[in-house]
Amino acid sequence: MTEILSPLDRRELRTRVSLALTGFLDRQERVLRRISADLVEPAVALREFLDGGKRLRPAFCYWGWRAAGGAAADGALDDAAFTAAASLELLQASALIHDDYMDGSDTRRGKPAVHRRFEALHAADGWDGDGARFGAAAAILLGDITLTWCDEMFTRSGFDAQRIHAARPIFDLMRSEVMAGQYLDVVAQNRGLGVATPQEILERAETVIRYKSAKYTIERPLQLGAALATGDGDEAGPVNAALSAYGLPLGEAFQLRDDVLGVFGDPATTGKPAGDDLREGKQTVLVALAAAHADGTQLKLLREGLGDDALDAAGVAALQQVIVDTGALDAVERRIEERTALALDALERASVESEARTVLAELAIAATARQV
Amino acid sequence: MTEILSPLDRRELRTRVSLALTGFLDRQERVLRRISADLVEPAVALREFLDGGKRLRPAFCYWGWRAAGGAAADGALDDAAFTAAASLELLQASALIHDDYMDGSDTRRGKPAVHRRFEALHAADGWDGDGARFGAAAAILLGDITLTWCDEMFTRSGFDAQRIHAARPIFDLMRSEVMAGQYLDVVAQNRGLGVATPQEILERAETVIRYKSAKYTIERPLQLGAALATGDGDEAGPVNAALSAYGLPLGEAFQLRDDVLGVFGDPATTGKPAGDDLREGKQTVLVALAAAHADGTQLKLLREGLGDDALDAAGVAALQQVIVDTGALDAVERRIEERTALALDALERASVESEARTVLAELAIAATARQV
């Protein structure tokens, strides 16, 4: 993402979010240490895991709060807003820890994935039994505790009980939606291009990005922040609806950009091997559009190559070519432009605080920009 | 467990808990159906999973509420108390779904475990890819969503926001403790009898049962119910401390009984194959005591047999004999008696509502009784 030039710049937001997380994790580590010294290792693993990341969801949550006049209503709650926003990083960490295990990913941001880290601990300590199974159990349990810590941190962020309670419907919906979206994503990957019509495949891919990504990453965090400012946790409430009109198309554009990077991105930028999404068999909108417009030869290539763990550089290049030649890449780029324009247009018309409007416009560009 | 003869008998408690769960799951299923018809299968799987169970944690939570005068304070909150109590079944369901996958258990209460159920769905629908991996992903995600639904249901149980907020410290501690306990249990299983001293092995086993079971199953649910009645979420508060003096030793006795059943129990009663805990290599207090008092030959048998997936009936019988001959079984039976007596004594002295006292005394006997 390009840098955002805003009064509260990205670095400050990151710092405040990191500070809130550190404070929370310090307290939790003390709780765990009292139980057993063997819990220090999981606590440290989680702390290191949470050290990275773009803090995208906290950014949208914080700016949703600002957009809805949170700072004007009570500037003293700025710390609470950063803490509530930071709690979303725990939900994201839980999802990534479980995802990496489910996908069989060995690394995350250049370091061993959590299940691999604990598998290595097993080997280093010369324990009995199956190290891979121990790594899996550790990753599942660490993801679980992190998931409960998300709502613990959110609840204790510093807003009063009534305000937290009012915002909970959006918080709860966000969690159910992202997990539902992930399940649908796994189902789609396993179904493959199978017997469905191109239209069905496309609709399924659109449902997955809406729930797994657009709502979860942008729309709901924005609304959650706004609900903390207004006390209105109804997704159809006026401010929440206005933020949805910006956040949902932007979230779709953001995920479409991510899908393009997953196929065409430079490993140095994405941190993932080139064509990784193809090997994983992700049923993205990009792939669905390619399948819809493929001729017999192209469709055969797609069917055989997608989800093939052993796909080599030539295989990746062949699939990339199909995606270009069918017009799918151009179509997705147009969609990204359209959705981003829709989002910016909605933001222009929304009745939101002016500094927030500026930052949200910048975030929209940063989240969807073409990358070299 | 033997039947409890109480004014609100076990059947009524189970019915109220089941009704609360059904109402909550109905609403969640509507949310999921709006996203995609593909989410009906997970919703149904979860509903069926929650259909069984002893409702032990809800019973202690409800009677904690009653013990602290909840009904006297506001009888109209009886529904809310059952709903809050029922939410603990979602935490338990999440833990069991994940546990079954981590342990590689194929069945739960005589039906396929969740990961196996979804593996079968994969095969029945003739999907691409690895069915076992799909089953794993489905079980992990279903456990995750169930975990978030626990706090959603608890929060929306019908108590006001202030009261829920006041009780949250115990709710949060309970969740962290059970996951910490599970992690320590997995570590202990993987460490095996290794290089630790008998005293270390015993202490580790005691820590595991305290956090994974005694606190999670009895102490914290009781205190959670009490906190909803009193508004005091401090575990050291007077009512909570009195309930801990009853709940913690009782919880230990309950788990020790469960450990005995895991080695000597009749499969018809336990629903698990005879000696299953031995095959899984569980490092229970029973096993730790056996190891501490074993001679060379007995220790060799223990080291070789524990955690051996392929242990046959003769192997199970040999280990059972070691546990009897070392005096470990007798020692554990004495511990169960002592802890139960401690619990009943504390209950006698506690300042709690009289009907609750009667029921809690019956629950103590039922949860720890020798079974034929």
Provide the spatial order of strands within the biggest beta sheet of chain A. 1-2
SS-based structural class of chain A? mainly alpha
Shape of chain A: globular
Largest sheet of chain A: 2 strands, antiparallel
Give the % helix of chain A. Answer: over 70%
Q: How many extended strands of chain A? A: 2
Word description of this protein:
- Two copies of one chain form a homodimer.
- Chain A has 372 residues and is an all-alpha fold.
- Chain A is built from 17 helices and two strands.
- A two-stranded antiparallel sheet of chain A has the order 1-2.
- Chain A is globular, with a radius of gyration of 21 Å.
- Mean pLDDT of chain A is 93; it is low at 1-5.
- Chains A and B meet through α1, α5, α7 and α8 of A and α1, α5, α7 and α8 of B.
Question: Which secondary structure elements does this structure contain, and how are they paired or packed?
Answer:
Two copies of one chain form a homodimer.
Chain A: H1 10-35, H2 40-49, H3 56-67, H4 70-73, H5 78-103, E1 107-108, E2 111-112, H6 114-124, H7 131-155, H8 161-191, H9 198-230, H10 238-264, H11 267-270, H12 276-280, H13 285-292, H14 296-305, H15 313-325, H16 328-349, H17 354-368
